[in-house]
Design brief:
2 copies of one chain form a homodimer.
Chain A: H1 12-42, H2 46-57, H3 64-70, H4 78-87, E1 91-96, E2 99-107, H5 109-129, H6 135-146, H7 149-152
Antiparallel strand pairs in A: 1-2
């Protein structure tokens, strides 16, 4: 029954479950920190940050449908979030040439500038929280996660 | 600037950020699967499962305050969730001897039986999603996560 190569004699199923619970706890903890940071420093939220991040990557803008698909944290009320960002002049709506019915949303220059600042601080917080992870650990994690392909790219 | 021992030349900050995003995506994906499973098989939810899991571990029951602290997924509306579980006869409220003001909540025998079933299926789903992780990977992950102590047990 036991696997001599492992330091832990629990069955694989149980070990995977424990690892998942640990990963979930860590994720929750990091998210709570990020939520605090966004609220205190920018009166912002994770879903709003997430929308801005997706728009920052897509310099030419995105259709609302494409934006929804890219969101990491939660679809939430994407329309409501975008409406607020437009009100705050961080996002603009633009009409696509040759297809007047298609509307894109895009960060304004002010939005890009603000997001760059937020993203740099966000990165510093993450790097600090994960400061115990060196290049070696990261190589190992990238290797493990890359074998979870079916999780990240479901075949269905 | 570059670290010859690493296969990846990106700065450590950026690599940690990428790893975090990957971990967050994986967590979201697994949660979505679990949410589907709980809804389709048990007309249940993640916060409800989480409450039942905490009560399953505490056989003698928990005060509401202790229950809230243990929750993994989200505090949500713990009172509301417990009220529903009581209505469904899965949870009972009991008065503590010697301290009549203290009230505990505890799974009923029916609740324990149901949760055992749910937990076994939940474990099988997790093990399947993480089937690429063998004992070796798990040893590595446990080692990495255990060095993130300050994340799981904040010093403040």
């Amino acid at each position: 029954m036991s696997n001599p190569s492992s330091q832990n004699e629990a069955p694989l199923d149980k070990r995977r479950l424990r690892m998942w619970i640990r990963m979930l706890r860590t994720t929750r903890f990091v998210e709570a920190r990020l939520r605090e940071f966004l609220r205190d420093r920018y009166k912002s939220t994770l879903p709003r940050f997430d929308v801005m991040a997706a728009l920052f990557r897509a310099e030419d803008g995105l259709k609302m449908s494409a934006l929804s698909k890219q969101l990491l944290v939660s679809n939430g009320n994407v329309t409501g979030i975008v409406d607020r960002l437009v009100e705050d002049r961080l996002v603009v709506r633009v009409i696509v040439e040759n297809d007047r019915r298609a509307m894109l949303v895009r960060l304004s220059p002010k939005g890009r500038e603000l997001f760059s600042k937020m993203a740099a601080e966000h990165e510093a917080i993450i790097s600090d929280l994960f400061s115990e992870m060196d290049n070696n650990d990261l190589d190992l994690l990238v290797d493990v996660f890359s074998r979870l392909k079916e999780i990240e790219e479901p075949s269905s």
